[in-house]
Amino acid sequence: MNLLVINIIGLALIALIIYWFWIYKPKNVRAKDQDIIKIIVEDGVYQPAHISVPAETEITLEFERKDETPCAEMVIFPDLDISESLPINKTKTIKLKKLEKGNYQFHCQMQMYKGELHVE
Fold this sequence. Notes:
With 120 residues, the chain is an alpha/beta fold. It has one helix at residues 2-23, and strands at residues 28-30, 36-42, 45-47, 50-53, 59-65, 74-77, 82-85, 91-96, 102-107, 114-119.
């Protein structure tokens, strides 16, 4: 009987892993002209992590770091040559100039926290 319980728990964990890595799609936030997007850094993720932005629009991102882990300390936009330190429990504002169409990744220095700007 114990073997049956262990197998059920194992299958449930496999299902959870499949859902988290392959099926789950995080909410996409759509920015409007001159919009401010607030991004919470907490529990190993950026919330929201996927942001749609109109092309040729200036956007302001406000990062609020609630996670004290060292990995959450920085946010890096490699394609935009931006690297900013995020203070704990304070808002860090990053103003982005008009961007051309494309996808712009952002992440922590270890690339464990990940997000994407989709400029359309």
